[in-house]
Amino acid sequence: MRRRFPHWVSRWFEPLIEWTIRLCGWSAIFFVFGILFFVFREAAPALAGGLNLTEFFTSPNWRPDSTIQPQFGILALLAGTASVTLLAMAIAVPGGLGAAIFVSEYCAPTTREGLKIVIEFLAAIPSVVWGFVGAIVLNPLIIEATGAPIGINILNGGIILALMSVPIIMSVGEDALRAVPDTYREAAVALGASRWQIVYKVLLPAAKNGLLAAVLLGVGRAVGETMAVLMATGHAVQIPHSLLDPVRTLTATIAAELGETVEGGLHYRVLFVIGSLLMIMTLAVNLTADLIVKGIRGRQDV
Amino acid sequence: MQPIRSAPIALLASVVCLSVACSGGEKRDAGSAPPPSTGVVIRITGSDTMVNLVQAWAENYKKKRPDVSVQVAGGGSGVGIAGLIDGILDLAASSREMEPAELERATQKHSGVKPKEYAVALDALSVYVHKDNPIDAMAIEDLAEIYGDKGKIDKWSQLGVKVPGCTSDTIVRVGRQNSSGTYVYFREAVLGRQREYKLGSIDQSGSKDVVALVGRTPCAIGYSGMAYATPEVKTVKLAKQKGQPPVAPSAATAMDKSYPLARALYFYSPGEPKPHVKEFLDWVLSPEGQKIVSDIGFVPVQAS
Protein backbone atom coordinates (compact mmCIF):
# COMPACT_ATOMS: atom_id res chain seq x y z
CA MET A 1 0.00 0.00 0.00
CA ARG A 2 1.23 3.47 -0.81
CA ARG A 3 1.71 5.92 2.02
CA ARG A 4 -0.75 8.68 1.60
CA PHE A 5 1.22 11.42 3.34
CA PRO A 6 4.92 12.16 3.17
CA HIS A 7 6.83 11.45 6.30
CA TRP A 8 7.15 15.08 7.45
CA VAL A 9 3.41 15.55 7.50
CA SER A 10 2.81 12.92 10.09
CA ARG A 11 5.86 14.07 11.97
CA TRP A 12 4.51 17.61 12.36
CA PHE A 13 0.82 17.06 12.26
CA GLU A 14 0.53 14.22 14.71
CA PRO A 15 1.91 16.20 17.65
CA LEU A 16 -0.12 19.22 16.58
CA ILE A 17 -3.34 17.24 16.61
CA GLU A 18 -2.34 15.58 19.84
CA TRP A 19 -1.79 18.93 21.50
CA THR A 20 -5.03 20.35 20.15
CA ILE A 21 -6.95 17.44 21.60
CA ARG A 22 -5.06 17.72 24.85
CA LEU A 23 -5.95 21.39 25.03
CA CYS A 24 -9.62 20.55 24.47
CA GLY A 25 -9.49 18.18 27.42
CA TRP A 26 -7.77 20.62 29.74
CA SER A 27 -9.85 23.60 28.67
CA ALA A 28 -12.94 22.05 30.26
CA ILE A 29 -11.20 22.12 33.63
CA PHE A 30 -9.98 25.62 32.98
CA PHE A 31 -13.48 26.82 32.16
CA VAL A 32 -15.08 25.17 35.16
CA PHE A 33 -12.64 26.82 37.52
CA GLY A 34 -12.82 30.08 35.60
CA ILE A 35 -16.59 30.20 35.95
CA LEU A 36 -16.40 29.22 39.63
CA PHE A 37 -13.89 31.96 40.25
CA PHE A 38 -15.94 34.59 38.40
CA VAL A 39 -19.20 33.76 40.14
CA PHE A 40 -17.64 33.69 43.60
CA ARG A 41 -15.73 36.90 42.95
CA GLU A 42 -18.93 38.74 42.03
CA ALA A 43 -20.71 37.30 45.06
CA ALA A 44 -17.95 37.88 47.61
CA PRO A 45 -18.58 41.57 48.46
CA ALA A 46 -22.21 40.80 49.39
CA LEU A 47 -21.06 38.01 51.68
CA ALA A 48 -18.44 40.24 53.23
CA GLY A 49 -20.99 42.89 54.11
CA GLY A 50 -24.46 44.13 53.27
CA LEU A 51 -26.19 40.77 53.17
CA ASN A 52 -27.71 39.43 56.36
CA LEU A 53 -27.19 35.69 55.99
CA THR A 54 -29.74 34.74 58.65
CA GLU A 55 -32.39 36.74 56.83
CA PHE A 56 -31.14 35.35 53.51
CA PHE A 57 -31.83 31.74 54.48
CA THR A 58 -34.81 32.11 56.81
CA SER A 59 -37.00 34.89 55.42
CA PRO A 60 -39.60 34.14 52.74
CA ASN A 61 -39.69 37.81 51.70
CA TRP A 62 -37.92 38.46 48.41
CA ARG A 63 -38.25 42.17 47.62
CA PRO A 64 -34.87 43.06 46.19
CA ASP A 65 -35.87 46.35 44.58
CA SER A 66 -38.19 47.75 47.22
CA THR A 67 -37.87 51.50 47.61
CA ILE A 68 -39.06 51.18 51.20
CA GLN A 69 -36.86 48.38 52.57
CA PRO A 70 -35.15 45.88 50.24
CA GLN A 71 -35.51 42.33 51.55
CA PHE A 72 -33.37 39.44 50.41
CA GLY A 73 -34.94 36.26 51.80
CA ILE A 74 -34.69 33.15 49.64
CA LEU A 75 -36.65 30.70 51.78
CA ALA A 76 -39.63 30.83 49.41
CA LEU A 77 -37.33 30.42 46.40
CA LEU A 78 -35.56 27.45 48.03
CA ALA A 79 -38.96 25.93 48.81
CA GLY A 80 -39.92 26.49 45.17
CA THR A 81 -36.82 24.78 43.80
CA ALA A 82 -37.11 21.92 46.32
CA SER A 83 -40.81 21.27 45.73
CA VAL A 84 -40.57 21.26 41.95
CA THR A 85 -37.45 19.08 41.99
CA LEU A 86 -38.97 16.59 44.45
CA LEU A 87 -42.14 16.23 42.43
CA ALA A 88 -40.16 15.89 39.20
CA MET A 89 -38.04 13.14 40.74
CA ALA A 90 -41.09 11.37 42.16
CA ILE A 91 -42.33 11.07 38.59
CA ALA A 92 -39.06 10.73 36.68
CA VAL A 93 -37.24 8.18 38.85
CA PRO A 94 -39.80 5.38 38.50
CA GLY A 95 -40.45 6.41 34.91
CA GLY A 96 -36.80 6.66 33.90
CA LEU A 97 -35.65 3.53 35.70
CA GLY A 98 -38.66 1.62 34.42
CA ALA A 99 -37.78 2.67 30.89
CA ALA A 100 -34.16 1.67 31.48
CA ILE A 101 -35.17 -1.80 32.73
CA PHE A 102 -37.56 -2.29 29.84
CA VAL A 103 -35.09 -1.15 27.22
CA SER A 104 -32.20 -3.14 28.62
CA GLU A 105 -33.93 -6.39 29.68
CA TYR A 106 -37.30 -6.85 28.05
CA CYS A 107 -37.00 -5.35 24.60
CA ALA A 108 -36.18 -7.04 21.33
CA PRO A 109 -33.00 -5.47 19.90
CA THR A 110 -34.78 -3.64 17.07
CA THR A 111 -37.44 -2.13 19.35
CA ARG A 112 -34.68 -1.21 21.78
CA GLU A 113 -32.81 0.91 19.25
CA GLY A 114 -36.01 2.59 18.12
CA LEU A 115 -37.15 3.33 21.65
CA LYS A 116 -33.76 4.65 22.70
CA ILE A 117 -33.66 7.05 19.78
CA VAL A 118 -37.13 8.36 20.55
CA ILE A 119 -36.53 8.72 24.31
CA GLU A 120 -33.20 10.41 23.75
CA PHE A 121 -34.89 12.74 21.31
CA LEU A 122 -36.81 14.03 24.33
CA ALA A 123 -33.46 15.23 25.68
CA ALA A 124 -32.85 17.23 22.52
CA ILE A 125 -35.98 19.37 22.85
CA PRO A 126 -34.91 22.89 23.92
CA SER A 127 -36.00 23.83 27.41
CA VAL A 128 -37.85 26.92 26.22
CA VAL A 129 -40.06 24.66 24.11
CA TRP A 130 -40.81 22.60 27.21
CA GLY A 131 -41.70 25.81 29.03
CA PHE A 132 -44.01 26.70 26.18
CA VAL A 133 -45.73 23.32 26.44
CA GLY A 134 -46.16 23.89 30.18
CA ALA A 135 -47.56 27.40 29.83
CA ILE A 136 -49.83 26.84 26.84
CA VAL A 137 -50.81 23.15 26.78
CA LEU A 138 -50.65 21.91 30.39
CA ASN A 139 -51.99 25.11 31.99
CA PRO A 140 -55.63 24.78 30.80
CA LEU A 141 -55.53 20.98 31.22
CA ILE A 142 -54.54 21.32 34.88
CA ILE A 143 -57.20 23.95 35.52
CA GLU A 144 -59.83 21.70 33.99
CA ALA A 145 -58.68 18.51 35.69
CA THR A 146 -58.14 19.84 39.22
CA GLY A 147 -60.22 23.01 39.48
CA ALA A 148 -57.08 24.88 40.48
CA PRO A 149 -57.32 28.65 40.06
CA ILE A 150 -54.26 28.61 37.79
CA GLY A 151 -52.49 25.86 35.90
CA ILE A 152 -48.92 27.11 35.99
CA ASN A 153 -47.78 25.72 39.33
CA ILE A 154 -45.67 23.03 41.04
CA LEU A 155 -47.59 20.24 39.33
CA ASN A 156 -47.01 21.76 35.90
CA GLY A 157 -43.31 22.46 36.49
CA GLY A 158 -42.84 19.03 38.06
CA ILE A 159 -44.33 17.23 35.08
CA ILE A 160 -42.27 19.25 32.61
CA LEU A 161 -39.04 18.73 34.56
CA ALA A 162 -39.80 15.02 34.92
CA LEU A 163 -40.15 14.70 31.15
CA MET A 164 -36.84 16.52 30.75
CA SER A 165 -35.03 14.28 33.27
CA VAL A 166 -36.37 10.93 32.06
CA PRO A 167 -33.99 10.65 29.08
CA ILE A 168 -30.94 11.24 31.26
CA ILE A 169 -32.06 8.79 33.91
CA MET A 170 -32.96 6.26 31.26
CA SER A 171 -29.76 6.38 29.24
CA VAL A 172 -27.40 6.38 32.25
CA GLY A 173 -29.54 3.74 33.98
CA GLU A 174 -29.53 1.54 30.91
CA ASP A 175 -25.73 1.73 30.72
CA ALA A 176 -25.56 0.66 34.34
CA LEU A 177 -27.85 -2.33 33.75
CA ARG A 178 -25.97 -3.39 30.66
CA ALA A 179 -22.72 -3.18 32.59
CA VAL A 180 -23.88 -6.07 34.77
CA PRO A 181 -22.04 -9.11 33.34
CA ASP A 182 -24.20 -11.56 31.41
CA THR A 183 -22.91 -14.36 33.60
CA TYR A 184 -25.15 -13.00 36.40
CA ARG A 185 -28.20 -13.34 34.18
CA GLU A 186 -27.16 -16.79 33.00
CA ALA A 187 -26.64 -17.98 36.55
CA ALA A 188 -30.06 -16.66 37.57
CA VAL A 189 -31.76 -18.32 34.60
CA ALA A 190 -30.01 -21.59 35.45
CA LEU A 191 -31.49 -21.36 38.94
CA GLY A 192 -34.96 -21.09 37.42
CA ALA A 193 -35.59 -17.40 38.06
CA SER A 194 -38.28 -15.64 36.04
CA ARG A 195 -37.46 -12.50 34.14
CA TRP A 196 -38.84 -10.19 36.79
CA GLN A 197 -37.02 -12.12 39.50
CA ILE A 198 -33.79 -11.61 37.60
CA VAL A 199 -34.40 -7.90 37.39
CA TYR A 200 -35.55 -7.48 40.96
CA LYS A 201 -33.21 -9.85 42.79
CA VAL A 202 -30.08 -9.81 40.65
CA LEU A 203 -29.78 -6.82 38.32
CA LEU A 204 -31.09 -4.02 40.53
CA PRO A 205 -28.78 -4.88 43.46
CA ALA A 206 -25.84 -5.41 41.10
CA ALA A 207 -26.38 -2.14 39.25
CA LYS A 208 -27.56 -0.07 42.20
CA ASN A 209 -24.67 2.38 42.22
CA GLY A 210 -25.02 3.11 38.54
CA LEU A 211 -28.76 3.56 38.94
CA LEU A 212 -28.23 5.92 41.88
CA ALA A 213 -25.84 7.93 39.73
CA ALA A 214 -28.52 8.08 37.04
CA VAL A 215 -31.00 9.44 39.55
CA LEU A 216 -28.55 12.04 40.86
CA LEU A 217 -27.75 13.28 37.36
CA GLY A 218 -31.50 13.66 36.87
CA VAL A 219 -31.68 15.67 40.08
CA GLY A 220 -28.82 17.88 38.90
CA ARG A 221 -30.67 18.52 35.67
CA ALA A 222 -33.87 19.40 37.52
CA VAL A 223 -32.23 21.75 40.04
CA GLY A 224 -30.34 23.64 37.36
CA GLU A 225 -33.10 23.95 34.79
CA THR A 226 -34.18 27.55 34.26
CA MET A 227 -36.20 28.47 31.23
CA ALA A 228 -38.80 25.72 31.45
CA VAL A 229 -39.53 26.31 35.13
CA LEU A 230 -39.60 30.06 34.61
CA MET A 231 -42.48 29.57 32.22
CA ALA A 232 -44.23 26.59 33.83
CA THR A 233 -44.18 27.23 37.58
CA GLY A 234 -45.91 30.61 37.65
CA HIS A 235 -42.96 32.61 38.95
CA ALA A 236 -44.68 33.57 42.20
CA VAL A 237 -42.71 34.22 45.40
CA GLN A 238 -44.49 32.21 48.08
CA ILE A 239 -44.06 29.15 50.26
CA PRO A 240 -46.35 26.56 48.67
CA HIS A 241 -49.04 24.77 50.66
CA SER A 242 -50.24 22.41 47.95
CA LEU A 243 -49.12 20.96 44.63
CA LEU A 244 -51.40 23.42 42.89
CA ASP A 245 -49.68 26.56 44.23
CA PRO A 246 -47.48 28.57 41.86
CA VAL A 247 -43.87 28.95 43.01
CA ARG A 248 -40.67 30.60 41.90
CA THR A 249 -37.31 28.85 41.72
CA LEU A 250 -33.77 30.09 42.39
CA THR A 251 -32.70 29.75 38.77
CA ALA A 252 -35.72 31.56 37.40
CA THR A 253 -35.10 34.45 39.78
CA ILE A 254 -31.59 34.96 38.43
CA ALA A 255 -32.77 34.73 34.84
CA ALA A 256 -35.59 37.19 35.35
CA GLU A 257 -33.75 39.79 37.41
CA LEU A 258 -30.11 39.94 36.41
CA GLY A 259 -30.75 42.22 33.46
CA GLU A 260 -32.20 45.07 35.50
CA THR A 261 -29.53 45.16 38.18
CA VAL A 262 -26.82 47.74 38.04
CA GLU A 263 -23.39 46.13 37.99
CA GLY A 264 -21.89 46.05 41.46
CA GLY A 265 -25.12 46.90 43.30
CA LEU A 266 -26.31 44.78 46.23
CA HIS A 267 -29.12 43.17 44.23
CA TYR A 268 -26.59 42.18 41.53
CA ARG A 269 -24.27 40.68 44.14
CA VAL A 270 -27.06 38.79 45.89
CA LEU A 271 -28.09 37.21 42.58
CA PHE A 272 -24.51 35.99 42.28
CA VAL A 273 -24.70 34.61 45.82
CA ILE A 274 -27.74 32.63 44.68
CA GLY A 275 -25.75 31.54 41.63
CA SER A 276 -22.92 30.32 43.84
CA LEU A 277 -25.40 28.43 46.00
CA LEU A 278 -26.87 26.74 42.93
CA MET A 279 -23.41 25.86 41.67
CA ILE A 280 -22.44 24.33 44.99
CA MET A 281 -25.67 22.33 44.99
CA THR A 282 -25.29 20.96 41.46
CA LEU A 283 -21.54 20.36 41.85
CA ALA A 284 -22.21 18.38 45.02
CA VAL A 285 -24.86 16.31 43.26
CA ASN A 286 -22.69 15.66 40.21
CA LEU A 287 -19.63 14.88 42.30
CA THR A 288 -21.60 12.39 44.36
CA ALA A 289 -22.85 10.76 41.17
CA ASP A 290 -19.30 10.59 39.82
CA LEU A 291 -17.85 9.12 42.99
CA ILE A 292 -20.58 6.50 43.08
CA VAL A 293 -19.83 5.52 39.48
CA LYS A 294 -16.13 5.31 40.36
CA GLY A 295 -17.20 3.12 43.27
CA ILE A 296 -18.80 0.53 41.01
CA ARG A 297 -15.86 0.54 38.69
CA GLY A 298 -13.43 -0.09 41.52
CA ARG A 299 -15.44 -2.97 42.88
CA GLN A 300 -16.11 -4.67 39.60
CA ASP A 301 -12.46 -4.65 38.67
CA VAL A 302 -11.64 -6.69 41.73
CA MET B 1 -20.49 -7.26 26.63
CA GLN B 2 -18.65 -4.01 26.55
CA PRO B 3 -19.82 -1.81 29.39
CA ILE B 4 -20.12 1.90 28.69
CA ARG B 5 -19.25 3.12 32.12
CA SER B 6 -17.97 6.51 31.26
CA ALA B 7 -21.32 7.73 29.98
CA PRO B 8 -22.08 9.99 32.98
CA ILE B 9 -18.68 11.59 32.74
CA ALA B 10 -18.99 12.10 29.01
CA LEU B 11 -22.41 13.58 29.62
CA LEU B 12 -21.03 15.93 32.23
CA ALA B 13 -18.20 16.99 29.98
CA SER B 14 -20.53 17.68 27.10
CA VAL B 15 -22.84 19.68 29.36
CA VAL B 16 -19.87 21.75 30.51
CA CYS B 17 -18.67 22.26 26.94
CA LEU B 18 -22.16 23.23 25.83
CA SER B 19 -22.72 25.67 28.62
CA VAL B 20 -19.34 27.22 27.97
CA ALA B 21 -20.17 27.57 24.30
CA CYS B 22 -23.55 29.02 25.12
CA SER B 23 -22.34 31.56 27.60
CA GLY B 24 -19.76 32.65 25.08
CA GLY B 25 -22.46 33.13 22.50
CA GLU B 26 -24.91 34.95 24.73
CA LYS B 27 -22.39 37.41 25.95
CA ARG B 28 -22.43 39.17 22.59
CA ASP B 29 -26.22 39.28 22.39
CA ALA B 30 -26.52 40.67 25.90
CA GLY B 31 -24.76 43.84 24.82
CA SER B 32 -27.95 44.34 22.77
CA ALA B 33 -26.11 45.93 19.86
CA PRO B 34 -23.01 45.31 17.84
CA PRO B 35 -20.46 48.12 17.64
CA PRO B 36 -21.57 50.82 15.18
CA SER B 37 -19.11 50.09 12.44
CA THR B 38 -21.03 51.19 9.35
CA GLY B 39 -23.64 53.93 9.20
CA VAL B 40 -25.20 55.52 12.26
CA VAL B 41 -26.78 53.37 14.94
CA ILE B 42 -29.24 54.43 17.62
CA ARG B 43 -29.45 51.89 20.42
CA ILE B 44 -32.71 51.84 22.40
CA THR B 45 -33.40 49.38 25.22
CA GLY B 46 -35.98 49.19 27.97
CA SER B 47 -39.70 49.16 28.57
CA ASP B 48 -41.50 46.06 27.44
CA THR B 49 -44.74 48.04 27.30
CA MET B 50 -43.17 50.28 24.68
CA VAL B 51 -41.26 47.68 22.70
CA ASN B 52 -43.87 47.32 19.92
CA LEU B 53 -44.18 51.08 19.66
CA VAL B 54 -40.45 51.68 19.50
CA GLN B 55 -40.09 48.87 16.97
CA ALA B 56 -42.74 50.54 14.78
CA TRP B 57 -40.91 53.86 15.06
CA ALA B 58 -37.66 52.13 14.11
CA GLU B 59 -39.17 50.51 11.03
CA ASN B 60 -40.82 53.70 9.81
CA TYR B 61 -37.74 55.79 10.49
CA LYS B 62 -35.75 53.37 8.34
CA LYS B 63 -37.91 54.36 5.36
CA LYS B 64 -37.24 58.01 6.02
CA ARG B 65 -33.57 57.78 6.90
CA PRO B 66 -32.15 54.53 5.45
CA ASP B 67 -28.66 55.46 6.64
CA VAL B 68 -29.68 55.45 10.30
CA SER B 69 -30.29 52.09 11.96
CA VAL B 70 -32.42 52.07 15.10
CA GLN B 71 -31.83 48.96 17.21
CA VAL B 72 -34.54 48.07 19.70
CA ALA B 73 -34.43 45.68 22.66
CA GLY B 74 -36.91 45.12 25.49
CA GLY B 75 -36.35 43.60 28.92
CA GLY B 76 -38.18 46.15 31.04
CA SER B 77 -37.73 49.77 31.97
CA GLY B 78 -35.34 48.74 34.75
CA VAL B 79 -33.10 47.07 32.17
CA GLY B 80 -33.13 50.23 30.05
CA ILE B 81 -32.33 52.48 32.98
CA ALA B 82 -29.54 50.15 34.16
CA GLY B 83 -28.16 50.28 30.62
CA LEU B 84 -28.39 54.08 30.60
CA ILE B 85 -26.45 54.25 33.86
CA ASP B 86 -23.86 51.79 32.55
CA GLY B 87 -23.54 53.96 29.43
CA ILE B 88 -24.25 51.35 26.78
CA LEU B 89 -27.34 52.99 25.26
CA ASP B 90 -28.33 56.05 23.26
CA LEU B 91 -31.87 56.06 24.63
CA ALA B 92 -33.57 54.18 27.44
CA ALA B 93 -37.29 53.51 26.97
CA SER B 94 -39.17 53.66 30.25
CA SER B 95 -42.80 53.38 31.25
CA ARG B 96 -42.07 55.15 34.55
CA GLU B 97 -40.15 58.20 35.63
CA MET B 98 -36.57 57.64 36.73
CA GLU B 99 -36.17 57.49 40.52
CA PRO B 100 -34.16 60.30 42.13
CA ALA B 101 -31.53 57.74 43.19
CA GLU B 102 -31.21 56.49 39.62
CA LEU B 103 -30.93 60.02 38.27
CA GLU B 104 -28.19 60.71 40.76
CA ARG B 105 -26.28 57.52 39.88
CA ALA B 106 -26.56 58.28 36.15
CA THR B 107 -25.37 61.85 36.70
CA GLN B 108 -22.39 60.60 38.70
CA LYS B 109 -21.51 57.97 36.08
CA HIS B 110 -21.56 60.55 33.29
CA SER B 111 -19.38 63.13 35.01
CA GLY B 112 -22.13 65.44 36.20
CA VAL B 113 -24.38 65.42 33.15
CA LYS B 114 -28.02 64.79 34.03
CA PRO B 115 -30.11 62.42 31.87
CA LYS B 116 -32.72 64.20 29.71
CA GLU B 117 -36.34 63.13 29.78
CA TYR B 118 -38.73 63.07 26.80
CA ALA B 119 -42.40 62.10 27.21
CA VAL B 120 -43.12 60.43 23.87
CA ALA B 121 -46.58 58.86 24.35
CA LEU B 122 -49.42 58.43 26.83
CA ASP B 123 -50.84 55.18 28.15
CA ALA B 124 -53.90 54.29 30.20
CA LEU B 125 -52.52 51.38 32.23
CA SER B 126 -55.41 48.93 32.05
CA VAL B 127 -56.68 46.32 34.48
CA TYR B 128 -57.63 43.14 32.66
CA VAL B 129 -59.84 40.21 33.66
CA HIS B 130 -61.00 37.11 31.77
CA LYS B 131 -63.68 37.88 29.19
CA ASP B 132 -66.28 35.79 31.10
CA ASN B 133 -65.72 37.71 34.32
CA PRO B 134 -68.86 39.73 35.03
CA ILE B 135 -67.07 42.47 36.99
CA ASP B 136 -67.49 45.89 35.41
CA ALA B 137 -65.83 48.44 37.66
CA MET B 138 -63.53 48.66 40.65
CA ALA B 139 -62.11 51.37 42.86
CA ILE B 140 -58.38 51.91 43.29
CA GLU B 141 -58.82 50.91 46.96
CA ASP B 142 -60.12 47.50 45.85
CA LEU B 143 -57.09 47.04 43.63
CA ALA B 144 -54.82 47.98 46.53
CA GLU B 145 -56.50 45.39 48.77
CA ILE B 146 -56.05 42.77 46.03
CA TYR B 147 -52.42 43.52 45.21
CA GLY B 148 -51.10 45.16 48.37
CA ASP B 149 -49.20 43.56 51.25
CA LYS B 150 -51.68 42.38 53.94
CA GLY B 151 -54.54 43.22 51.56
CA LYS B 152 -57.88 41.74 52.55
CA ILE B 153 -59.40 40.83 49.19
CA ASP B 154 -58.47 37.41 47.79
CA LYS B 155 -61.85 36.05 46.64
CA TRP B 156 -63.96 37.22 43.74
CA SER B 157 -67.07 36.93 45.94
CA GLN B 158 -65.69 39.72 48.12
CA LEU B 159 -66.13 41.99 45.09
CA GLY B 160 -69.68 40.73 44.64
CA VAL B 161 -69.15 38.66 41.51
CA LYS B 162 -69.24 34.98 40.69
CA VAL B 163 -66.83 34.18 37.86
CA PRO B 164 -67.88 31.34 35.54
CA GLY B 165 -65.11 28.75 35.18
CA CYS B 166 -63.45 29.84 38.42
CA THR B 167 -64.70 27.23 40.88
CA SER B 168 -62.12 28.05 43.56
CA ASP B 169 -63.24 31.70 43.72
CA THR B 170 -59.58 32.65 44.33
CA ILE B 171 -58.32 35.83 42.72
CA VAL B 172 -55.16 34.94 40.79
CA ARG B 173 -52.99 38.04 40.73
CA VAL B 174 -50.95 38.36 37.57
CA GLY B 175 -48.23 40.96 37.68
CA ARG B 176 -44.95 41.92 36.11
CA GLN B 177 -41.48 41.07 37.26
CA ASN B 178 -39.64 43.78 39.11
CA SER B 179 -37.52 44.99 36.20
CA SER B 180 -40.73 46.32 34.72
CA GLY B 181 -41.57 50.01 34.81
CA THR B 182 -45.23 49.07 34.79
CA TYR B 183 -44.66 47.09 37.98
CA VAL B 184 -43.10 50.12 39.64
CA TYR B 185 -45.69 52.57 38.31
CA PHE B 186 -48.59 50.35 39.40
CA ARG B 187 -47.14 50.06 42.91
CA GLU B 188 -46.83 53.80 43.28
CA ALA B 189 -50.15 54.67 41.70
CA VAL B 190 -52.23 51.97 43.40
CA LEU B 191 -50.44 51.01 46.59
CA GLY B 192 -48.70 54.28 47.30
CA ARG B 193 -45.05 54.78 48.15
CA GLN B 194 -45.29 53.16 51.56
CA ARG B 195 -46.88 49.83 50.68
CA GLU B 196 -45.34 46.66 49.24
CA TYR B 197 -46.91 44.17 46.86
CA LYS B 198 -48.44 41.07 48.40
CA LEU B 199 -46.00 38.27 47.55
CA GLY B 200 -47.24 35.31 45.54
CA SER B 201 -48.42 37.07 42.39
CA ILE B 202 -47.67 35.38 39.07
CA ASP B 203 -44.90 37.58 37.70
CA GLN B 204 -44.69 37.67 33.91
CA SER B 205 -41.80 39.02 31.92
CA GLY B 206 -43.81 40.76 29.20
CA SER B 207 -46.85 43.02 28.82
CA LYS B 208 -48.28 40.64 26.27
CA ASP B 209 -47.70 37.61 28.51
CA VAL B 210 -49.83 39.19 31.24
CA VAL B 211 -52.80 39.66 28.93
CA ALA B 212 -52.35 36.22 27.33
CA LEU B 213 -52.29 34.51 30.73
CA VAL B 214 -55.34 36.41 31.96
CA GLY B 215 -57.12 35.39 28.76
CA ARG B 216 -56.43 31.71 29.52
CA THR B 217 -57.26 31.85 33.25
CA PRO B 218 -60.82 32.60 34.37
CA CYS B 219 -59.76 33.40 37.97
CA ALA B 220 -57.11 35.93 36.97
CA ILE B 221 -56.69 39.68 37.14
CA GLY B 222 -53.74 41.51 35.60
CA TYR B 223 -52.41 44.91 34.58
CA SER B 224 -50.76 45.93 31.32
CA GLY B 225 -50.56 48.71 28.74
CA MET B 226 -53.77 49.69 26.94
CA ALA B 227 -52.34 48.68 23.56
CA TYR B 228 -52.25 45.01 24.57
CA ALA B 229 -56.01 44.38 24.84
CA THR B 230 -57.24 41.22 23.06
CA PRO B 231 -60.70 39.67 22.52
CA GLU B 232 -59.88 37.11 25.24
CA VAL B 233 -59.86 39.70 27.99
CA LYS B 234 -61.92 42.63 29.16
CA THR B 235 -60.80 45.87 30.72
CA VAL B 236 -62.21 46.99 34.05
CA LYS B 237 -63.40 50.56 34.63
CA LEU B 238 -61.61 52.22 37.50
CA ALA B 239 -62.77 54.80 40.03
CA LYS B 240 -60.27 57.06 41.79
CA GLN B 241 -62.12 56.44 45.03
CA LYS B 242 -65.13 54.44 46.17
CA GLY B 243 -68.26 56.41 45.33
CA GLN B 244 -66.74 58.28 42.41
CA PRO B 245 -67.80 57.39 38.86
CA PRO B 246 -65.70 54.62 37.28
CA VAL B 247 -63.82 55.58 34.11
CA ALA B 248 -62.91 53.30 31.22
CA PRO B 249 -59.36 53.49 29.83
CA SER B 250 -59.36 55.29 26.48
CA ALA B 251 -57.46 57.89 24.51
CA ALA B 252 -59.76 60.65 25.73
CA THR B 253 -59.65 59.69 29.40
CA ALA B 254 -55.87 59.26 29.27
CA MET B 255 -55.46 62.72 27.78
CA ASP B 256 -57.71 64.57 30.22
CA LYS B 257 -56.28 62.48 33.12
CA SER B 258 -59.75 61.44 34.31
CA TYR B 259 -58.61 57.81 34.14
CA PRO B 260 -56.80 57.06 37.42
CA LEU B 261 -53.89 55.13 35.88
CA ALA B 262 -53.06 57.51 33.02
CA ARG B 263 -49.31 57.77 32.63
CA ALA B 264 -46.65 58.97 30.23
CA LEU B 265 -44.13 56.79 28.41
CA TYR B 266 -40.59 58.17 28.27
CA PHE B 267 -37.31 58.17 26.46
CA TYR B 268 -34.24 59.07 28.50
CA SER B 269 -30.97 60.09 26.93
CA PRO B 270 -27.73 60.24 28.92
CA GLY B 271 -27.22 64.00 28.79
CA GLU B 272 -27.75 66.09 25.65
CA PRO B 273 -28.55 63.68 22.76
CA LYS B 274 -26.14 63.39 19.83
CA PRO B 275 -27.35 65.14 16.65
CA HIS B 276 -28.65 62.00 14.92
CA VAL B 277 -30.48 60.95 18.11
CA LYS B 278 -31.97 64.43 18.48
CA GLU B 279 -33.21 64.25 14.91
CA PHE B 280 -34.88 60.90 15.67
CA LEU B 281 -36.51 62.33 18.82
CA ASP B 282 -37.84 65.33 16.87
CA TRP B 283 -39.33 62.96 14.32
CA VAL B 284 -40.91 60.81 17.08
CA LEU B 285 -42.61 63.90 18.51
CA SER B 286 -43.68 65.17 15.07
CA PRO B 287 -47.24 64.48 13.78
CA GLU B 288 -45.82 61.67 11.64
CA GLY B 289 -44.21 59.95 14.62
CA GLN B 290 -47.22 60.53 16.85
CA LYS B 291 -49.56 58.99 14.28
CA ILE B 292 -47.69 55.70 14.80
CA VAL B 293 -48.45 56.03 18.53
CA SER B 294 -52.19 55.90 17.87
CA ASP B 295 -51.76 53.16 15.25
CA ILE B 296 -50.13 50.91 17.84
CA GLY B 297 -52.91 51.63 20.34
CA PHE B 298 -51.41 54.22 22.68
CA VAL B 299 -52.26 57.90 22.98
CA PRO B 300 -50.22 60.69 21.34
CA VAL B 301 -48.75 63.34 23.59
CA GLN B 302 -50.56 66.59 22.98
CA ALA B 303 -48.89 68.75 20.37
CA SER B 304 -46.71 71.24 22.14
Question: Can you describe this structure?
Answer:
The complex is a heterodimer of chains A (302) and B (304). With 302 residues, chain A is mostly helical. In chain A, helix 1 packs across helix 12, helix 4 packs across helix 6 and helix 6 runs antiparallel to helix 9. Chain B has 304 residues and is α/β, with parallel strands linked by helices. In chain B, strand 1, helix 2 and strand 2 form a beta-alpha-beta unit. The N terminus of chain B is likely disordered. Classes of the chains: A mainly alpha (302), B alpha/beta (304). At the A-B interface, helix 1, strand 1, helix 5, helix 6 and helix 9 of A face helix 1, helix 3 and strand 8 of B.
Describe the SSE topology.
The complex is a heterodimer of chains A (302) and B (304).
Chain A: H1 7-48, H2 53-58, E1 62-63, E2 71-72, H3 75-106, H4 109-124, H5 127-146, H6 154-178, H7 182-190, H8 195-206, H9 208-224, H10 227-232, H11 250-257, H12 266-301
Antiparallel strand pairs in A: 1-2
Helix pairs in contact in A: 1-12, 3-6, 3-9, 4-6, 5-6, 6-9, 7-8, 9-12, 11-12
Chain B: H1 7-30, E1 40-46, H2 51-64, E2 68-73, H3 77-86, E3 91-94, H4 100-109, E4 116-124, E5 126-130, E6 137-139, H5 140-147, E7 172-176, H6 181-191, E8 202-204, H7 207-216, E9 220-224, E10 233-235, E11 237-239, H8 251-255, E12 262-269, H9 275-285, H10 287-296
Parallel strand pairs in B: 1-2, 1-3, 6-11, 7-8, 7-9
Antiparallel strand pairs in B: 3-12, 4-12, 5-9, 5-10
Helix pairs in contact in B: 2-10, 3-4
